[in-house]
Design goal:
With 160 residues, this protein is an alpha/beta fold. It is built from five helices and eight strands; from the N terminus they run ββββααβαβαβαβ. The structure holds zinc ion (ZN) (2 copies).
Length: 160
Amino acid sequence: MEKQKIRKVEKTVKKKALLVSYNPVGDFTIGRFEGKHVNILSGNHYHNCIGSEKRRVRDAEEELGALVHGLKTKDLDSVDQIIAYVGKCGFDRAVKVIERFVNEGRKVTMVACDCNWSAKQHIASRLGIPLVECSCGGESKMGEIAERIEKTGKVNLRGV
Ligand SMILES: [Zn+2]
Ligand SMILES: [Zn+2]
């Protein structure tokens, strides 16, 4: 009998991983960070999340829109996986960004807080992408993920 194939859990980053969040990512520079194995596009929404819900949503969406707008084809060519944060304020825009990447045939992982969790689960399963839970803002989890990839050159989202 043929040996059962064991699915590899650890994927080596051949190109780079791109992390996208409208919030800070750990202690990485806010804005654009280019490392050896990770590139990061991050905003500063979480620490400026104030005002009416309408304003918070608008601010988060604008922050994410500006980050993604600055992405060039050559940025994406150097990347073979994308890890994107979906929170509460930037929910709609972040989901649209993820859908775009998935439609372009890119490997995407959603990192999301548990606000509106069932909708996030539904979207991840519809798109067929992994979903990783984090606390609101995603700052520390995204930071851990980025640090681990940068250090090891591997994406291992199990147990993060
Ligand atoms: Zn917010
Ligand atoms: Zn949340």
